[in-house]
Amino acid sequence: MKVVCIINARGNSKGLPGKNIRMFGDKPLIAHTIESAINSKICDRVVVSTDDEEIAEISREYGAETPFMRPKDLANEFVHPEKSLVHAVEEIISSGYQFDITVMRDCTEPFIDEDDIINAVELLKKTNSCYGVQAVHKAHPNPYFGMVELNSHGYLEDSKIAD
User: Fold this and answer.
1) Which of 50, 110, 129, 142 is buried deepest, with most CB atoms within 10 A?
2) What is the DSSP string of 116-133?
3) Given the DSSP bridges, would you call strands 23-24 and 27-28 parallel, antiparallel or unpaired?
4) Does domain 3-136 have CATH number 3.90.550.10?
């Protein structure tokens, strides 16, 4: 079975401009996502879907392909990531490449490593009753109890307390 990893990385982040190529440790943030996909050795191709030439260039430096540029109308904060994924899949298929499994990655997930990718793909391969696998992690402690708010004296205090 052929596996393609598609990494979404738009260039016009409103919250943190340039976040996808900012240094995270010793390399750009997107490099961690690219390297985990490549190092998994389960992905036949690692493709970055971006509208930004600088992101595309850095992606190629770290071993990803950028065979197309994402249209601007699919590269803003109001577009659901699945729409850019569908665009990427259609572009890859229209180039004549056939594949069986798509691994969708967001480049702001540097802690999903190659073992996570391998385990997800292997689970999908051996399960005939599912169409998708998603990585999740149980929050410990529950983040609900980590919220704080200003009290009447202007100091932060816990909003919720576990019984």
Assistant:
1) 50
2) HHHHHHHHHHH-TT-S--
3) antiparallel
4) yes
Q: Please, which residues bridge with residue 7 across strands?
A: 48, 105
pLDDT in tens, 67-79: 999 999 999 988 9
pLDDT tens, 21-39?
Answer: 999 999 999 999 999 999 9
Domain ranges of the chain: 3-136
Count of helix runs (H) and strand runs (E) in the chain: 4, 7
CB 8 within 8 A of CB 49: yes
Burial class of residue 97 (count of CB atoms within 10 Å of its CB; 0-12, 13-18, 19+) = middle
SS3 letters across 77-114: CCCCHHHHHHHHHHHHHHCCCCCCEEEEEECCCCCCCH
The alpha carbons of the chain give a radius of gyration, in whole angstroms, of 19
Mean pLDDT, range 95-113, rounded to an integer: 94
